[in-house]
Amino acid sequence: MYERLSQRTLSDLLAQFPAVVLLGPRQAGKTTLAFAQKDQNPGALYLDLELPSAQRQLDDPEAFFLAHPNQLVILDEVQRLPELFSVLRGVIDQRRRDGEASRQFLLLGSASGVLLKQSSESLAGRVAQLELTPFQAREVLRADEGTQGMNALWVRGGFPLSWMAANDAQSLSWREAFITTYLEKDIPALGPRIPATTLRRLWTMLAHNQGELLDQSRLAAALAISGQTVGRYIDLLCDLMLVRRLPAWSGNVGKRLVRAPKVYVRDSGIVHALLGLQDLDAVLSHPVAGNSWEGFVIEQLISAAPQAQASFFRTSHGAEVDLVLEFRGGQTWVIEIKRSSAPTVSKGFYLAADDVGASRKILVAPVQGAFPIKGGIEVMNPLMAAALVAAQT
Fold first, then answer.
1. How many angstroms separate the CA atoms of 386 and 392, rounded?
2. Does domain 6-131 fall into CATH 3.40.50.300?
3. Residues contacting residue 224 through CB under 8 Å, at least 6 positions apart
4. What are phi and psi of 377, to 5 degrees?
5. Are 29 and 167 contacting, i.e. CB atoms less than 8 angstroms apart?
6. Taking the complete model, does pTM exceed 0.90, yes or no?
7. Does domain 137-392 have CATH number 1.10.10.410?
8. Which of 49, 206, 226, 361 is least buried, going by the fewest C-beta atoms within 10 A?
9. Interatomic CA distance for residues 198 and 213, integer angstroms
10. Contact 153/137 with Cβ under 8 angstroms?
11. Where are the alpha helices (DSSP H) in the chain?
12. Is the pLDDT of residue 154 over 90?
């Protein structure tokens, strides 16, 4: 069993807030994390709202919640019953008057848009939010493990059952089944009537174009649908925390900046499954390898610094950096990502670092240790970079 880095954060938030929303894609480990909290809170109740029996217990939710005072109530897949949020507000306020200030509700969900909208509107000031990603390198790899473990995590991705599969073939089979289940069951259950074949083609196209600038008109032409429809489908995949739109840096530097976002399929294992790539050799021989590695590293770093503002920087004259992290304390780090054991950066990286006022310049690559190169750049592997970023937050 791997210890999740979010475990302590979740405990701290539950001690501070009456309600916590734990967000994450399906099969990322939310329920396992919730049961760890249940074990720490004697008498805690768990309801899986995908089950009709659990939904029947909430026919009169106010009466049910008030009948279980001084108990942590865990509601899994809470987006199934969005009408609960208006009830929760009154119940939380009643419990507060009765002296219960925290540890009232843990709400799990795999559709961030629905939950964030409902919780922000109905539970303002009463709820905290925490995202649980699939396994990150800092959770499953040792610092002395070398590149073999990192390559395995990159190829398989971080979904627990994919990572822990007996071999690469079984891992790929799990991811293929995961994709099919999302398309044929989970997405239709949320309400949108989207042809599964069209969404699969779009998802696969995004994998082929991993880390490229979003061009909705080109995707729309290939799918024979409108650009507006493509945008709506990508919105859905982002809402399900399967795809990330990485925005362009938006500061004012007096230069012509690229404004379109980049789009990444968030889990590298899902990228490889969509493209039918089973093992490391297959991934390395595919044109997507470099961009897949870039997306993998970006997810490691953004997960390590969830409060930092993340973007990329590109001008029309070639100044470019893969990731800009702006921390609350005013620090700005620029990060270049290379799939090379002897990485270098272009002149455009130095220009971009100057343009954004970078206080630290990092080059992330599959290297064994950290070392400096000219221009004040620090070279390190993803595990080291993620630890460094986490320490800054």
1. 10
2. yes
3. none
4. -90, 135
5. no
6. yes
7. no
8. 226
9. 21
10. yes
11. 6-16, 30-40, 52-57, 61-66, 84-97, 112-122, 137-140, 147-156, 160-163, 168-181, 187-189, 196-208, 216-223, 227-239, 268-274, 280-284, 289-304, 347-356, 382-392
12. yes
Which residue is associated with the tokens 């470019």? 320
Widest CA span in the chain: 66
Output the CA–CA distances (angstroms, integers) from residue 151 to 23, 272, 289, in the order listed: 27, 13, 11
> Average pLDDT, stretch 259-288?
97
Structure tokens of 124? 């303002």
Residue 292, φ and ψ in degrees, nearest 5: -65, -45
- Amino acid code (one letter) for 146: G
Phi and psi at residue 164, in whole multiples of 5°? -90, 5
List of residues 6+ apart from 375 with CB closer than 8 A: 345, 350, 361
Q: Provide the residue ranges of all domains of the chain, joining segments of one domain with +.
A: 6-131, 137-392
**Crossing angle, helix 216-223 and helix 196-208, to 10 degrees?**
130
Residue 314 near residue 346, CB atoms below 8 Å: no
Q: 243 with 212: CB under 8 angstroms?
A: no
Mean pLDDT of 49-70: 89
Q: Token pair of 57, please?
A: 């217990």
What SS3 state is found at 56?
helix
Domains 6-131 and 137-392 share a fold: no
291 closest CA partner among 366, 182, 208: 208
Over the Cα atoms of the chain, what is R_g? 22
Sheet containing 212-213: give its strands across.
212-213, 262-265, 243-246
Determine the Cα–Cα distance for residues 24 and 14; give it in Å rounded to an integer: 17
Give the whole-angstrom CA distance, residue 147 versus residue 84: 47
Cα distances from 56 to residues 50, 53, 81, 244, 318, in angstroms, run: 11, 5, 12, 36, 59
- Provide the mean pLDDT of the chain: 91
| Tokens 């009154």, residue located | 90
Which residues, in sequence order, are CB contacts of 340 under 8 Å at separation 6+? 365, 366
What band does 122 get if pLDDT is binned at 50, 70 and 90? Answer: low
H/E run at residue 371: strand 371-373
For 99, residues 6+ apart whose C-beta sits below 8 A from its C-beta are none
